[in-house]
Design brief:
CATH architecture of the largest domain: Alpha-Beta Complex
Keywords: Metal-binding, NAD, Oxidoreductase, Plasmid, Zinc
CATH class of the largest domain: Alpha Beta
Protein name: L-idonate 5-dehydrogenase
Number of domains: 2
Cofactor: Zn(2+)
Radius of gyration: 20 Å
Number of strands: 18
Strand content: 25-35%
Structural class: alpha/beta
Largest sheet: 7 strands, mixed
Number of helices: 10
Distance between the termini: 12 Å
Organism: Rhizobium sullae
Family: Belongs to the zinc-containing alcohol dehydrogenase family.
Length: about 350
């Protein structure tokens, strides 16, 4: 089978890999669609992000859907030919944090396409994938592209849980990539009264308006547009920081009202924080990392038509054009979510 392997910055190769047989509790899957994530782009463009660096070739990808091809022993509830969304989250279920129900903080997490541990955890961008049956959520009624969006949707659903009460709140979203747009959708579904979104690209901001933002601001052309929101100690109750950029976080903090909540999703490396403002306004700074049980919830929300991710999928390219797909996904002036069609 063919797999998409990154060897270093701008060194992406389609390589042959052996096909594995499913074991006890496992299924063999024929990949359908795979979405290129921001972390995939960091590996492709820069060889990693922050302190996380590639130290060996790694198969990329963790946003995937697939068709069930064969069932291992002891597998029930799935059938050959069925479309499934494949969760990349594979906690050990026995460590301290798994026992506390914090599966996303697992000490022995095997998350597809991650260079955090060494040896690296190989990713899911391969024509044939053997996965645990518990990773596979039936996606009947969805397209392969929609099912592959379950992973980034789960990220924002987890962040929304971390934010706490949202009903009737004023929300600011900084960074309008796929996670930013899905945060807008999740916050709106959770009952946000007003959502303002910022970015540096008119293209992404146009999609943010379609996703449900009440107002969008291009901080490149309108650098002072958040200033009115800073009056009287601030206006917003919740900040979804999705850019990972210090200027966005600093500007967002200035626009938050006392005792507001900051949800940090963007992974851009360490940054300096305005601690005096955080302290004086008694802000809550909360990290949000990955997800677990929210994955299946996201699939159900899409199946019920309560969340529509289709407008975010702007491009789909074949496996043979993988490098072109990664270059396109890097271009924020024309691409939101670029997916690769495996079958």
């Amino acid at each position: 089978m063919k797999a998409i392997v990154v060897h270093g910055p701008k060194d992406l190769r389609i390589e042959e890999r052996p096909i594995e047989a499913p074991g006890l509790g496992e299924v063999r899957l024929r990949l359908a669609a795979g979405g290129i994530c921001g972390s995939d782009l960091h590996y492709y463009n820069h060889g990693g992000f922050g302190a996380v660096r590639l130290r060996e070739p790694m198969i990329l990808g963790h946003e995937v859907s697939a068709y069930v091809e064969a069932l291992g022993a002891g597998v029930d509830g799935l059938k050959p030919g069925q479309l499934v969304a494949v969760s990349p989250s594979r906690p050990c279920r026995s460590c301290l944090y798994c026992q506390e129900g914090l599966h996303n903080q697992c000490l022995n997490m095997r998350f597809y396409g991650s260079a955090m541990p060494f040896p690296h955890i190989q990713g899911a961008f391969r024509e044939v994938l053997v996965a645990d049956a518990v990773q596979c959520v039936p996606a009947d009624g969805l397209t392969a592209g929609e099912a592959a969006m379950a992973e980034p949707l789960a990220v924002t659903l987890h962040a929304t849980r971390r934010a706490g009460e949202i009903l009737g709140k004023r929300v600011l979203v900084t960074g309008c990539g796929p996670i930013g747009l899905l945060s807008i959708i999740a916050a709106r579904r959770a009952g946000a009264a007003e959502i303002v979104a910022t970015d540096l690209s008119d293209f992404t901001l146009s999609l943010a308006r379609k996703a449900g933002a009440d107002r969008t601001i291009n901080m490149r052309s309108e650098p002072d547009a958040l200033s009115p929101y800073t009056a009287h100690k601030g206006s917003f109750d919740i900040l979804y920081e999705c850019s990972g950029a210090a200027p966005a976080l600093v500007a967002g903090i200035a626009a938050l009202r006392p005792r507001a909540v900051i949800i940090q999703l963007g992974l851009g490396g360490d940054m300096n924080l305005p601690m005096m403002a955080i302290t004086a306004k008694e802000l809550d700074l909360r990290g949000s990392f990955r997800f677990h049980e929210e994955f299946a919830t996201g699939v159900v929300l899409m199946q019920k038509g309560l969340i529509d991710v289709k407008p975010l999928i702007t491009h789909t390219l074949p496996l043979s054009d993988a490098e072109a797909a990664f270059e396109l996904a890097t271009d924020r002036s024309q691409a939101m979510k670029t997916q690769i069609a495996f079958s």
